[in-house]
Amino acid sequence: MQFRQSLFWDTKPSSINPKKNAQYIIERVADFGNDKEARWVLNYYDKSFLRRVIAKSRCLRPRTKALWTLLTNTK
Fold first, then answer.
1. Is residue 67 part of a domain?
2. Is 4 a member of any domain?
3. How far apart are CA 71 and CA 30, in angstroms?
4. Nearest to 41 by CA among 67, 61, 6
5. Distance CA 18, CA 48 (A)
6. Residue 1 to residues 28, 51, 58: CA-CA distances in angstroms?
7. pLDDT digits over 9-46, tens only?
8. What pLDDT was estimated at residue 2?
9. Is 65 part of any domain?
10. For the chain, how many structural domains are there in total?
């Protein structure tokens, strides 16, 4: 996945490792990502892992957290 510079404004997108930086990617895409990026996250990461990251995140906005909780609980 090619990450947008505007999504990861504080780092170089090409240096982001999807496995090593999973929580960072999930939180950033959940709050600021577009549909394509959200679909990629939902397909790339395991649903149980996504649920844990969303539940434990301290930086996600409440509405974002509620939406992603619903998205990851569906089959």
1. yes
2. no
3. 11
4. 67
5. 17
6. 14, 21, 25
7. 999 999 999 999 999 999 999 999 999 999 999 999 99
8. 86
9. yes
10. 1
On whether the CB atoms of residues 36 and 46 are closer than 8 A, the answer is: no
Identify the domain containing residue 51 by its residue range: 16-73
- d(C-alpha 73, C-alpha 11), whole Å: 31
Residue type, 32: F
> Is 24 within a domain?
yes
Report yes or no on whether pTM surpasses 0.85.
yes
Dihedral sign (CA 24, 37, 20, 70): positive
75 falls in which pLDDT band (50, 70, 90)? Answer: low
> Residue 23: enclosing H or E segment and its boundaries?
helix 22-32
